[in-house]
Every structure is written in C-alpha cells, then in structure tokens.
C-alpha cells in the first residue's frame, strides 16, 4: 500500500541562493562591446565561463531594435549565459526579446541600499573602481573545495556599490564594509571593521569557509550558497566579534 500524499515529503524549501550578476550596457557599438566583454571575461576566465547573467539595457533601451538584438547576441557569443533582461521603465519593450531568446524579463534586481548583486557596468573604459564580477553570480558554483593559493587584502573601506572577490583564497578587509557593498571569497572572509554590507564566503562550494567580523550588522551572509538575510539575523546575533559558520546546511552566528 503506497503512502498517502499528505504523509510523504515531496518538497523542502531551503535557504539556498544562486547569485545573479547584472551586466549593464551603456552603448551598443559591436566593436566596443566585444572588446570590453572579452576584457571582463579575461579578468576571471574560470569565474566568468558560462556565468548566468541578467542583461540591463535600460541605458540603451531607445536604440534601434537591430542594435538591441545584436547586443544580446554578442553577449551570448562571448560565453555569458543570459537568463533575463532588465530595462527599468522600458521593460515592456524587452518582452519580445525575452520571448525571442527564451529568457525572463526582469523588472528590477538588487539588495537594499545598494547596487544589484554582481552589477558590472559596461562602458568604453572599464571603471577604475575594483568590482570583480561574481558570478556569481546566478551561476551555481561548483561544489569543490577552494584552492587557497592567495589571500587578498583590502586596506581601505569598501563603499556602497563596490564588489570585492578573492578568487582561490581568503579575503581580508581592514576597514568598514558599507551597506550595499559586497564581499566574495572562495575561502574565508575576515572583516576587521563593521560589516554592514553583504559577505559571501565559500562561493565555489567550500562548506568549511568562515566569516569573521569585528562588528556584525550585515545585509546578507552566505557560506557555500546557504544564506541568511538581515531580517533573519536576530539582535542577539548582531554585535561585536562575530563568527559565522555553516552547520548542517544552516548558518550559525557565534561570539568569539
């Protein structure tokens, strides 16, 4: 006799995340696009390969339809995996492209008080500001242990809108991390000042990764894809000298 549907667990909703990168386009010149996309990809080839992204075309939404279509095709040709489109007030115009390329039209992405996660401006000249692309970001990271080949040290505050990624190692930030800023590391994350932005450790699946901070007031915490947002962090868990670990697919916050 088979079990009744009510007695069998069919699904389970877990606090897991897959990060989304937003690729913002400011012009549709095919030569410029090709050069800048290739440069971005070459900055972190392993990270960017087949990386799912949302393409933000708001700044060029009034361009001819042929240019918009060519832009979408060029992004795909460079190896990015397009999963959605975004165009702000011009979102309706993208509906036909979403259907044509079999992707989702996305009205808006992003966390509280800051730029969308993984937002990568695409201009004539890449910004001087350090904004390593994360995948992540809707690309499910391979569940493999990170090779701690390097430790990245940031000797200045991380401002809102900045994204810092420590590929293949740990990330140490000696200053404060503002709301809207994002830290990512294949290994551990150490913040020697207040952590008010987002911190994502073990982004390539390292479940033993840790997050250490002098003061915890984060918008989001994540280890190996398991996450907690600000609303899920209690007042008792916030405070001075905190350690975040992953235990049985759940993030634990303890005082150290």
TrEMBL record:
One Pfam family this sequence matches: MinC_N
Region: Disordered, residue numbers: 115-139
One GO-annotated biological process of the protein: regulation of cell septum assembly
Tagged with keyword Cell cycle: yes
Residue ranges annotated for the Septum formation inhibitor MinC C-terminal domain, each copy included: 153-253
Keywords: Cell cycle, Cell division, Septation
Domain Septum formation inhibitor MinC N-terminal: residue ranges: 11-79
UniProt-listed InterPro entries: CAP/MinC_C (IPR016098), MinC (IPR013033), MinC_C_sf (IPR036145), MinC_N (IPR007874), Septum_form_inhib_MinC_C (IPR005526)
Primary role: Cell division inhibitor that blocks the formation of polar Z ring septums. Rapidly oscillates between the poles of the cell to destabilize FtsZ filaments that have formed before they mature into polar Z rings. Prevents FtsZ polymerization.
Assembly behavior: Interacts with MinD and FtsZ.
Stated family: Belongs to the MinC family.
PANTHER family for this protein: SEPTUM SITE-DETERMINING PROTEIN MINC
Name the UniProt record assigns to this protein: Probable septum site-determining protein MinC
Native source organism of the sequence: Thioalkalivibrio versutus
Lineage: Bacteria, Pseudomonadati, Pseudomonadota, Gammaproteobacteria, Chromatiales
